[in-house]
Amino acid sequence: MRSRRGTTVVLGSLALVVSSLVWAPAGQAGAGGRAAVLCTGHSHGRYDPPLTLLPQETRHHADVNYTCTTATGHTAPATGSFDAVAPAASCLSLTSARGTETVRYADGSRSVIDIDGATTARVAGVLVVLQSGRVAEGRAEGHAVRRTVTALPGQLPTDCLTSGIQDTHSTVRLEILP
Fold first, then answer.
1. Would you place residue 175 in the very low, low, confident or very high pLDDT band (cuts 50, 70, 90)?
2. 3-class SS at 106?
3. How confident is the model at residue 154 (pLDDT cuts 50, 70, 90)?
4. Residue 110 confidence (pLDDT)
């Protein structure tokens, strides 16, 4: 129990530090007030095949529950479905993966986001991924995107030696820039 509490404190502190470094106000919305959006939430993801000590091509899928705020201050729930392929992922390193996230907003609109760049760091067992991309279609099409994922594995690190790491639980911050 004590190690979980310590892990939670480390994860919370790291999330606060990362969000302080990368946070920028959503700014003014573009046409129709529909461009700038800030979404924060939690995700559950799975690696297929599981991450082991040997690098291998790995698919990652995550379902995200967001609370999104527009530049006008309107807040509403949204869901995201994220899929990526990492060419050489392992428990020791996660290469930059290109991916796609589809965000579905409460009003029925959606944004399809192409993630084309990422920086990955591991701090005290916590994985921090800073991603960038662009809205490919839908709400805010053409706008730049920043996505910050802070994750702990859903399993023990020793699982890298046996069955591999399959699950992640993450906090996610998604910014669609004006």
1. very high
2. coil
3. low
4. 95
Coil, helix or strand at residue 93: coil
Q: How far apart are the first and last CA of the chain?
A: 43
CA atoms of 147 and 39, how far apart (whole Å) = 9
3-state secondary structure 14-75: HHHHHHHHHCCCCCCCCHHHCCCEEEEEEEEEEEEEEECCCCEEEEEEEEEEEEEEECCCCE
Quick one: which of 177, 146, 175, 171 has its CA closest to 13? Answer: 171
Place of tokens 């690190």: 157
Percentage of the residues of the chain whose pLDDT score is greater than 90: 49
What sign results for the dihedral spanned by CA atoms 164, 150, 45, 152? positive
B/e letters for 109-138, b = 16+ CB within 10 Å, e = fewer, are ebbebebeebebeeeeebbbbbbebbbeee
- Say how many CA atoms lie within 13 Å of 145 toward its Cβ: 30
- Global pTM? 0.77
At residue 46, the pLDDT reads 93
Amino acid present at 24: A
Specify the range with the lowest mean pLDDT, choosing from 90-99, 146-155, 163-172. 90-99
Cβ atoms of 118 and 127 closer than 8 Å = no
